[in-house]
Amino acid sequence: MLRHITVTRKTSDEDVLLLSFEVCDGVSVFVSEAYAQFDWETTSAQKLRTFGHQLHGGLFDLEAGDGGPEYASGAFRARFHFFKPTKLLVSVEQQGDYFAFKNTAVAPEARMFLRTEPALLDRFIEALPRLDASDGGEAVLECIPLDA
What we know:
Helix content is 15%, strand content 49%. The chain is mainly beta and 148 residues long. The protein has a single domain (4-142), classed as Secreted effector protein pipB2 fold. The protein has a four-stranded antiparallel β-sheet. The protein has a four-stranded antiparallel β-sheet with strand order 4-5-6-9. α1 runs antiparallel to α2 (118-127). The protein is globular, with a radius of gyration of 15 Å. The chain starts with a strand and ends in a 6-residue tail after the last strand.
């Protein structure tokens, strides 16, 4: 399986977007959905572009939705960290929608660890604003093996 983070625009209205996040670490795949503000794609691309120039120790959190049973759908958080100029590490936390289980509310969760490169991040940054065009569009961040 190819390692990746794929963001897909599912639906939208004039206020919010419903995004799907598929994360694969080469062994496991987890898909979750989260709501985000209407201009999430463009704003995120601008912030990631700024982060991309911080090659020494920079940190950036790409987030959508929020955790907890009070929120609709789920949550996504990817922390980007330039560990070394050529090592861009990404830790991802996802939470699905809550549901009833044994008289309580629970949600599926996943935590994965990935590695990518500055050139692959640049491609992802270029693809994000194109999600604004229509529902069904996707942006893919290709990743490489952690030990590469």
